[in-house]
């Protein structure tokens, strides 16, 4: 039996989901998915719907990775702004990327509606400008969204209007995106898993994959079993390096921490975030937060450059929350937890295939929406329509230089530089 979820607000409020048996013995499948987060679950579910016999193997529990621990922020698009996409790729390619990425939001909403997933879905996402220069960039971004992308979901919030969205001090306006939102991340993962199970996917928990073998008919092996399949999908995000050293060079696992306060009551909670939207900041090393369905403030923030977690996670995140909201100083913190974000060098996700092995990882903090799309694009590609998958696979993501030993110091140096820039 797989171990329980790491303690968090999400684990404490998870919907019931029956534990799945470990993989034992040798089995054959059309598709074998490794990893039971959103990417793997979405690939497995869509492949089963397409008629494939699918086995999904998860090392721990379904949703044990970032998908069960994240901030729940549904942020449309990539980590790059539309303006960045146009500058780097030109208008036409940027429009194509933007258009496909933008389908992610509706795919998640569609899954939630179709499978009746109770995951506290709420609407609206606000990116707060931390400096006047960031707001000026947002004005340009709005023009780009409007004129070049034909996107009308976003609106500029002027500095003096910010209080209507969020009461935290120190912001200089921002962008409100009505297509964004937030949800209970673990319950979304469990809902996808339940839908996958109902569609015929064989789910195995507590089954770490120890070996992946390529070829015409690739296979994966665990300590107690193996699966040979027509296609294998590697969906291990920040843990990818553990099963494929080459793919591991493309992401840096970065620890990030969250807290959930005690319930604040509706009035006090609404005074913090009157819009009820998910909030994240324009800073590189950012705070992000939202209200839970039971009116707690769920807050992620802080900078941590060593792989070791802080001894007191709540004590580590609390100062960032209290700086944003002095009114909650001293409030009880009921839950504190952390997880690993798979970050690529340039913050764009890394998609691709090696023969019949597909992979998608490195969403760089923007995976709540993009992962459902990723899984569905992998199934599309397996079925022979790879145009959209190939578009994402063409994103210019490079490996971190220097292998695992140099990767971390280089990353730390980079993060410190950006953290310094945030303060200028
Ligand atoms: C603290 C935190 C906050 C975040 N906040 C946000 C946010 O607010 N908005 C947003 O868009 N994104 C956010 N993210 C990022 C987002 O959660 C991820 O991009 C997304 O969940 C990745 O999903 P995934 O399925 O690709 O990977 P995961 O959910 O990490 O799933 C990978 C799975 O693979 C399994 N696995 C690993 N190795 C093996 C193996 N050898 N054999 C079998 N299984 C294996 C793991 O146990 C895990 O369950 C956050 C991430 C973290 C950690």
From TrEMBL:
Any one cellular-component term (Gene Ontology): cytoplasm
InterPro entries, per the entry: FAD-dep_OxRdtase, FAD/NAD-bd_sf
Gene3D superfamilies the UniProt entry points to: D-Amino Acid Oxidase, subunit A, domain 2, FAD/NAD(P)-binding domain
SUPFAM superfamilies: FAD/NAD(P)-binding domain
Domain FAD dependent oxidoreductase: 30-380
Molecular-function GO term, any one: oxidoreductase activity
Keyword list, A-Z: Oxidoreductase
Name of the featured protein: Gamma-glutamylputrescine oxidase
């Amino acid at each position: 039996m797989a171990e329980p979820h790491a303690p968090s607000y999400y684990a404490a409020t998870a919907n019931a989901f029956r534990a799945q048996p470990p993989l034992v013995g040798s089995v054959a499948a059309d598709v074998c998915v490794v990893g039971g987060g959103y990417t793997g679950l979405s690939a497995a579910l869509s492949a089963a719907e397409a008629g494939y016999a699918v086995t999904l193997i998860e090392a721990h529990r379904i949703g044990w990775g970032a998908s069960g621990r994240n901030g729940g922020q549904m942020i449309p698009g990539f980590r790059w702004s539309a303006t960045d996409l146009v500058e780097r790729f030109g208008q036409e390619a940027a429009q194509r990327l933007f258009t496909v990425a933008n389908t992610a939001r509706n795919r998640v909403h569609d899954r939630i509606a179709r499978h009746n997933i109770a995951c506290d879905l709420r609407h609206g996402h606000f990116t707060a400008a931390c400096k006047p220069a960031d707001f000026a960039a947002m004005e340009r971004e709005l023009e780009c969204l409007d004129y070049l992308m034909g996107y009308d979901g976003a609106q500029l919030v002027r500095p003096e209007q910010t209080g209507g969205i969020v009461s935290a001090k120190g912001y200089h306006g921002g962008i409100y995106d009505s297509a964004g939102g937030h949800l209970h991340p673990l319950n979304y993962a469990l809902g996808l898993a339940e839908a996958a199970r109902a569609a015929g996917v064989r789910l195995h928990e507590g089954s770490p994959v120890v070996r992946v073998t390529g070829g015409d008919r690739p296979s994966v092996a665990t300590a107690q079993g193996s699966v040979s399949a027509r296609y294998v999908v590697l969906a291990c995000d920040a843990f990818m390096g553990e099963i494929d050293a080459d793919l591991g060079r493309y992401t840096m696992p970065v620890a990030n921490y969250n807290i959930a306060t005690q319930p604040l009551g509706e009035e006090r909670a609404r005074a913090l975030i009157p819009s009820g939207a998910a909030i994240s900041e324009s800073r590189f090393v950012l705070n992000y937060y939202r209200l839970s369905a039971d009116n707690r403030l769920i807050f992620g923030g802080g900078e941590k450059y060593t792989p070791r977690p802080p001894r007191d996670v709540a004590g580590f995140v609390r100062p960032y929350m209290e700086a944003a909201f002095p009114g909650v100083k001293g409030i009880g913190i009921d839950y504190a937890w952390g997880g690993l974000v798979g970050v690529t060098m340039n913050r764009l996700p890394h998609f691709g295939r090696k023969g019949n092995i597909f992979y998608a990882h490195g969403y760089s903090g923007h995976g709540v929406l993009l992962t459902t799309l990723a899984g569905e694009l992998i199934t599309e590609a397996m079925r022979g329509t790879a145009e959209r998958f190939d578009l994402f696979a063409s994103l210019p993501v490079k490996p971190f230089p220097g292998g695992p030993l140099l990767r971390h110091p280089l990353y730390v140096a980079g993060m410190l530089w950006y953290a310094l820039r945030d303060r200028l």
